[in-house]
Design brief:
The structure is a single chain. The chain is an alpha/beta fold. 25% of the residues lie in helices and 18% in strands. The chain has ten helices and 15 strands. A seven-stranded mixed beta sheet has the order 6-7-8-9-10-12-11, with helices on one face. The protein is globular and about 50 Å long. The relative contact order is 0.12.
């Protein structure tokens, strides 16, 4: 159970103050006095009085509205209540007797050190060792419901992400067509500047009308990009880094032959070819993984390593499919991720959600689909991935059948 600190001795939601606040402690330690408050229970050792740091072991309930980094699984979510402003200089002067005022500088220095270095950590502001982001894909053709039947589609998922707190960016592991319309939904709920990282799925490469938009996006400045893919890569192979994490997007469709936007015959509009990973892709990926120095590595692709049933409905789609039609190449891919301690492989394609540690030792997080009420086979889902220190968790948010009410279904610790 986490320990929470109450610098002002005021307590917070769900907790009871056990002693005076930290400011009291600093002033008391430095100046031999403190501003004793009602309900405070200082531990005193004669004169001068010293009040110990206020500690509570209670775990406040998570209200779902805050995106501050969390240091524990969702069951132990805690939100520190908004803190009162710092004690003013004039007020501090009034607290001090004339003989104590020469030591005022010492007190202010201690308070400055506390507020500048310790408060951010105590109130949960992001640090370099913390990061959160969301994963949602396979929303294709279900952006906004044109019917007045009470169901919501991808727009409902984006609104829920905003409510929960979307973190730094959204990853969509494929089948996000039509991309322009879905980007507009993201703009509406998450902001026009909210980063959206894409992995091309089979429905993009099979739809020639979509690929020009995707290629334009790939040619633009991808936020935080580290390395572009192989020369002449037609689809998505690239890497980026944010905070404590390095991300790599792979292409499972190297043999895709997209048609032209003028094609009207769907059969001729494009072909994904064999699902595979080429030798050139393996070389590029290994070079990229070997160069990473950040503590977390995440690899994302459309095809799963292993197609698994939905965690709730049990539905099975695309049984037997993997990142390669060749089992040896799929195993080679898993071995490479394991060698470089990739924390998880993020994927889609199946429309079924599962977060499982495979027999290969690799965590696979399948985001299912974000179609809201548009797919009755399994609940609409988005994943929120959180990291702190050397730990990582996946919060699985799932919707009701109408796609309007998303709730935390489960939190999985990625060990």
């Amino acid at each position: 159970m986490p320990w929470w600190f109450d610098p002002w001795g005021q307590g917070h939601a769900g907790g009871k103050v056990q002693s005076c606040g930290f400011f009291d402690w600093v002033v008391g330690l430095t100046l031999g006095r403190y501003d004793q408050r009602p309900k405070a229970k200082p531990l005193c050792f004669g004169q001068p009085k010293l009040s110990v740091l206020a500690i509570t072991t209670a775990t406040p309930k998570h209200d779902g509205m805050n995106d501050r980094p969390i240091h524990a699984p969702a069951a132990g979510h805690g939100i520190v209540a908004p803190m009162r402003p710092l004690i003013g200089f004039k007020r501090l002067s009034r607290l001090l007797s004339p003989c104590e005022r020469p030591f005022r500088f010492m007190a202010l220095a201690a308070l400055t050190l506390f507020t500048g270095c310790l408060v951010p950590a105590l109130i949960g502001q992001p640090t370099a060792s913390e990061l959160s982001f969301v994963v949602a894909g396979d929303m294709r053709s279900f952006g906004i419901n044109p019917s007045d039947n009470g169901k919501r589609f991808f727009d409902g998922a984006c609104e829920a992400m905003r409510r929960v707190g979307p973190g730094r960016f959204l990853i969509s592991p494929g089948d996000f067509d039509p991309p322009a319309a879905n980007r507009a939904i993201i703009d509406q709920y998450l902001g026009a500047d909210f980063p959206w990282y894409l992995v091309v799925g089979n429905h993009e490469v099979e739809n020639a009308a979509v690929m020009p938009w995707v290629r334009t996006w790939l040619a633009a400045d991808i936020p935080h990009v580290v390395r572009r893919g192989l020369p002449g890569t037609p689809l998505t192979i690239y890497s980026w880094a944010v905070g404590n994490s390095h991300f790599i997007a792979i292409d499972s469709y190297p043999w895709a032959k997209p048609g032209t936007p003028g094609d009207t015959d769907k059969a001729k509009s494009g072909s994904k070819g064999n699902v595979d990973l080429t030798d050139a892709t393996f070389r590029w990926l290994e070079e990229e993984l070997a160069a990473v120095t950040l503590p977390f590595i995440w690899v994302t692709g459309h095809q799963p390593l292993e197609s698994l049933p939905d965690m709730d409905s049990g539905r099975v789609r695309h049984p037997g499919e993997s990142v390669s039609a060749d089992p040896d190449r799929a195993e080679r891919f898993a071995t490479l991720l394991r060698k470089f301690r990739v924390r998880a492989y993020l994927c889609g394609h199946t429309h079924n959600t599962s977060v499982v540690k495979l027999k290969t030792g690799i965590w696979q997080a399948d985001s299912g689909h974000a179609r809201g009420g548009g797919d009755a086979g399994s609940p609409s889902t988005f994943l929120k991935i959180r990291t702190a220190g050397d730990q990582a968790w996946v919060d699985i948010y799932r919707a009701d059948p109408t796609g309007t009410d998303y709730r935390l279904r489960q939190t999985v610790t990625l060990d």
